[in-house]
Amino acid sequence: MDNYIFEAEAKSKSEAEELTLQTLRLQPGDLKFEVVESGKSGFLGITQKKPAVVRAYVANKDIPSEKIIHGVILTILKKMGVPAEVVGMGDVDGKIYVELTSKESGLVIGKRGGTLDSLQFLVNLMVDSKTRHSRKIVLDIESYRDKRELSLVRLAKSIASSVAKTGKSKLLDSMNPFERRIVHMAIQEDDKVFTRSEGNGTFKRVRVIPAKDKHKYADADDQNSKKGLPVEDFPDSED
User: Fold this and answer.
1) Distances (CA, A) of 117 to 90, 91, 136, 138
2) Which value, in Å, is the radius of gyration of the alpha carbons in the chain?
3) pTM of the model
4) Which helix (H) or strand (E) holds 210?
5) pLDDT single digits (tens) 188-222
6) DSSP-based three-state secondary structure for 238
7) In sequence order, what are the beta bridge partners of 34?
8) What sections of 81-213 are H helices per DSSP?
9) CA-wise closest residue to 198 among 184, 213, 219
10) Cα(140)–Cα(123) distance, integer angstroms
11) Are 218 and 194 in contact (CB under 8 A)?
């Protein structure tokens, strides 16, 4: 069964369904609903009444992908307990960019963007690849990613200058593929240094190395190639 695209709760099943349609601006025939909780009255009117909870699934295959993405994002945000809203969505360079807003944007971003990246991963996981036409969904809030890119470029150039002066390489903190690519690209034209990604998995670390040591890495790549091991390919491409 397909993933549900929205979950809503209200006093009754009908109100929860209506809330879903209003939030996503869809018609009744566009969705089919699954009742998770029917809503129960409190015992003898003393205890609090439990709300009705419904989940919405796509019934009309012609629903715009933006509506589905919107619903999935809002549902995940609610389950995370994060108060945020979608304020913009558009196709840029073959990716679907979604702009969020929140009075508590720091919670959405997390340390070094970790929470935002996790949220982005979940959204891409829950929205079927066919629905988004194989495009990656990129989430941003309060233009964090633009600010982060500027910060990384400044960091990369500062580190490159230090490495060139001292002749000693420096290893940066672990980063996701998108951030590593920014660092690689920021100093790729600097003939005094070069960069490598080190480590395994998604979150590798970038090492900035003085140009005088390039032959050492060329030798290592040649040996790995002869052994059938992967040769470092950089700058990193985004996952």
Assistant:
1) 18, 19, 13, 9
2) 24
3) 0.76
4) strand 204-210
5) 999 999 999 988 877 889 999 999 988 877 755 55
6) coil
7) 55
8) 105-109, 114-126, 144-166, 177-186
9) 184
10) 13
11) no
